[in-house]
Write a structure and sequence with these properties.
about 300 residues, Tetrahydropterin Synthase, Chain A, four-stranded antiparallel sheet, 7 helices, about 50% helix
């Protein structure tokens, strides 16, 4: 495992000034040396000027070589510097810099990135086939780990994110879990936090940090979607009926209590049962009740 370290680089503008002065000075020296050597052809001092010509051309080549060491960095961008296969350090400061021209400079972005995963068809904790997708916001934290510890860190993040989403779907039920159990549908915040923690554990090997992870798609697979929809509708009808019956029973109890307290009428058990039955039919029926006037008595 590699760990990022900072390498010292030089101010690009200062080095550019030095390199240009060296280049122009070498060119001027070469011109003067060539002119002097031509004027002293066959004389005893000609050999010295030839040496100066060679030196001037060497200085020109050196200045051109040194110019290759200049590079720029934008904000939230880094350069990993490698010398003959050995990691030397990372530059993170934005601006105009100069470093050894023999260094290999590999650029790497430190900005936030979005990874929007495709829809995955997996089984939830209860074995039901579901479709699930997630979006991951991540960035590079350690450039050395990202470059040297994995082959392709972007592909690594994509594959590990897909694996984490699959594992997440297998760990939770889509809906209708046990009592107080977190499900994919009802516990979005808890599920997103669990996904983020698992992703961070997986992606830390590539020097990446996960800023946010959220589910973007969650649904039953098409082959069972119809059956599950009918199940949800039936459960909704049962829940509504339960609420209606509970309310109706409360209203009947309140009516009987009010009549007894105000002594409007006295009921025996049979009359009370008949009234309860009639009130429940009126309150729980789906259609409007039609009153029937009984001209006789309850017993005739």
């Amino acid at each position: 495992m590699h760990q990022e370290r900072t390498i010292r680089v030089y101010n690009g503008w200062a080095m550019l000034t030095f390199n240009l002065l060296l280049l122009f000075g070498s060119v001027a020296l070469a011109i003067v040396s060539i002119g002097s050597a031509s004027a002293t052809v066959g004389r005893s001092g000609n050999a010295g000027w030839i040496v100066m010509i060679v030196v001037s051309f060497l200085l020109i080549a050196t200045a051109i070589f040194l110019l290759r060491g200049h590079f720029t960095l934008q904000p939230n961008q880094g350069r990993v510097l490698i010398l003959f296969g050995a990691y030397k350090g990372t530059v993170r400061d934005s601006g105009f810099h100069w470093a050894n021209p023999l260094l290999t400079r590999r650029p790497i972005s430190l900005r936030l990135r979005n990874l929007e995963g495709g829809k995955l068809k997996v089984n939830d904790k209860q074995g039901n086939p579901i479709e699930i997708a997630a979006v991951v916001v991540w960035r590079i934290l350690d450039t050395a780990e990202a470059v040297f510890d994995v082959d392709n860190f972007e592909e690594y993040v994509r594959i590990q994110s897909e694996t984490a989403v699959r594992h997440l779907a297998n760990s939770y039920a889509y809906d209708h879990g046990e009592e107080n159990e977190i499900t994919l549908r009802s516990g979005m915040d808890e599920v997103s936090l669990a996904l983020k923690q698992e992703l961070q554990q997986r992606l830390s090997k590539a020097g990446a940090v996960v800023e946010e992870a959220r589910l973007t798609h969650l649904a039953y697979a098409p082959e069972i979607a119809g059956a599950m929809l009918r199940r949800q509708q039936a459960e909704a009808v049962i829940a509504a009926r339960k609420m209606i019956v509970h309310g109706a029973v409360s209203m009947v109890q309140m009516a009987l209590q009010e009549l007894a307290e105000k002594q409007v009428i006295e009921f025996d058990e049979e009359r009370k049962a008949a009234m309860v039955s009639n009130l429940l039919v009126v309150l729980c029926g789906e259609s409007e009740a039609q009153p029937i006037i009984n001209a006789g008595t309850l017993y005739s």
